[in-house]
Amino acid sequence: MKITETERLILRTLEVNDLDALMDIWGSDEVMKYCGGAGTREQELRSLQYYIDMQKERGFSSYLVIHKDTLKVLGVCGFNPPHEEYDAELMYHFAKPHWGKGYAKEAAKGCLAYAKEKLGLRRIGAFVDPKNTASKRILEKNGFRFIGKKWFEDTKQDELCFELELERPGE
Ligand SMILES: CC(C)(COP(=O)(O)OP(=O)(O)OC[C@H]1O[C@@H](n2cnc3c(N)ncnc32)[C@H](O)[C@@H]1OP(=O)(O)O)[C@@H](O)C(=O)NCCC(=O)NCCS
């Protein structure tokens, strides 16, 4: 199901047969360097199923990002479930050959507009490895505010915490 589109991109819900394309992303050590490392095909099938179920249960999830002209899969962008005081957590992972072309910034912008207008989400959080300069830029470019560092038990380090308040029309 198509979720939204931007100037160059289409975002649609994930499907089980996206696994091959996703392995270029979630199966890549380089892409997943700051996101818990690459997974095996079995692990990523479970991740994929998790996002498919999340879409059914919550009405939002992470989405496949496709180039409008070439129809190539560029990445994944969207949301993880509510976390602490946040309605959702923004995420984005793009295949290495497609870095540096503004796709992540554009996809994040499209997801955030969709979250605001169609999902009614209000507060979005994002948590970034301090060494992940590219990811920090995506957040800053989309209006996120740095609120401080926080210890994460799963990564065993301080992560940078960002948040964005999405105002609803009329507020
Ligand atoms: C983070 C990631 C999504 C960025 O994707 P991208 O499509 O290359 O980013 P964009 O081209 O939209 O760049 C957005 C901004 O960040 C800047 N940027 C991109 N990569 C950068 C880098 N390595 N160092 C510094 N700035 C960088 C761009 O110059 C751009 O800024 P500008 O608008 O001022 O020119 C991509 O590198 C990626 O998939 N990384 C691995 C997964 C990941 O770390 N995800 C996030 C946390 S889990």
TrEMBL record:
InterPro entries: Acyl_CoA_acyltransferase, GNAT_dom, N-acetyltransferase. Residues 9-167 form the N-acetyltransferase domain. GO terms for molecular function: acyltransferase activity, transferring groups other than amino-acyl groups. It comes from the Bacteria. It comes from Proteiniclasticum aestuarii. SUPFAM superfamilies: Acyl-CoA N-acyltransferases (Nat). This is GNAT family N-acetyltransferase.
